[in-house]
């Protein structure tokens, strides 16, 4: 008979696979340790591109998923909801996002992540339902509080309208994106 018995060959193969997995795990832990040793927990340091990308993608994924589950439809037809939302904004949101909603305050500029310019394209890309969910529930570890325990749904919708009013005028938008695409996002 040539070579070891079949059971010995399987044992050796199992040991080889186990050793390979342990070695791979050790390399991954070493790489993770190296990455974490370079990371900063300070909110004063600007985040790197990878960190910003990963955080933004995760936030977009989870907000879209959760907002689709249980966000209420608009119920009240108010005469000027953006103006009502503007009053609420100045009372509750301007301390971080700035009085104009576009220029973060001193507090908002030194949060991590920084308070958003609410007229910016990344903010205006959120659907109305997603903006509603963010205002109602907040986003952990971002400084964005949830207002769902202090504002009713009917009080949150005017804030969504106010955020929409901060978008640049239609003629200032890029010509690469038709107005219909922007309007479709709002209806989602």
How would the blueprint of this fold be written?
Layout (H helix, E strand, L loop, with lengths): L5 H33 L10 H22 L10 H12 L1 H4 L8 H4 L11 H4 L3 H10 L15 H13 L13 H9 L1
Structure report:
The chain is mainly α. Helix content is 59%, strand content 0%. Helix 2 packs across helix 7 and helix 3 crosses helix 8. About 5% of the residues have low confidence.
Percent of residues in helices comes to: 55-70%
Q: What is the H/E string?
A: HHHHHHHHH
Query: Could you please say which CATH topology applies here?
Result: Cytochrome Bc1 Complex, Chain D, domain 2
Structural class: mainly alpha
Say how many strands there are: 0
- The fourth-level CATH homologous superfamily is Cytochrome c-like domain
- Which regions contain 5 or more consecutive residues with pLDDT less than 50? 175-184
Overall tally of structural domains: 1
- Tally of helical segments: 9
Radius of gyration: 25 Å
Shape: elongated
Indicate the CATH architecture.
Orthogonal Bundle
The CATH class, by name, is Mainly Alpha
Q: Mean pLDDT score, rounded?
A: 84
Report the sheet with the most strands, covering strand number, pairing sense and barrel closure. none
Distance between the ends: 71 Å
Short description:
This protein is mainly α and 188 residues long.
Structural key phrases:
188 residues, 59% helix, elongated, mainly alpha, 0% strand, single chain, Cytochrome Bc1 Complex, Chain D, domain 2, 9 helices
């Amino acid at each position: 008979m040539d070579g070891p018995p079949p059971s010995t060959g399987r044992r050796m193969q199992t040991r080889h696979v186990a050793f390979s997995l342990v070695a791979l795990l050790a390399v991954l832990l070493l790489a993770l340790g190296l990455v974490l040793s370079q990371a900063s927990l300070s909110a004063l340091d600007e985040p790197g591109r990878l960190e910003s990308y990963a955080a933004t993608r995760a936030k977009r994924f989870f907000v879209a998923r959760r907002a689709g589950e249980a966000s209420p439809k608009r119920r009240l037809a108010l005469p000027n909801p953006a103006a009502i939302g503007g009053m609420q904004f100045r009372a509750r949101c301007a301390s971080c996002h700035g009085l104009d909603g576009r220029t973060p305050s001193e507090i908002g500029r030194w949060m991590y992540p920084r308070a958003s310019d609410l007229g910016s394209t990344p903010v205006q890309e959120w659907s109305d339902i997603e903006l509603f969910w963010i205002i109602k529930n907040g986003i952990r570890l971002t400084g964005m509080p949830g207002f769902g325990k202090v504002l009713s749904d009917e009080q949150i919708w005017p804030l969504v309208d106010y955020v929409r009013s901060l978008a640049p005028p239609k003629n200032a938008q890029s010509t690469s994106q038709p107005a219909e695409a922007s309007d479709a996002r709002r209806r989602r």
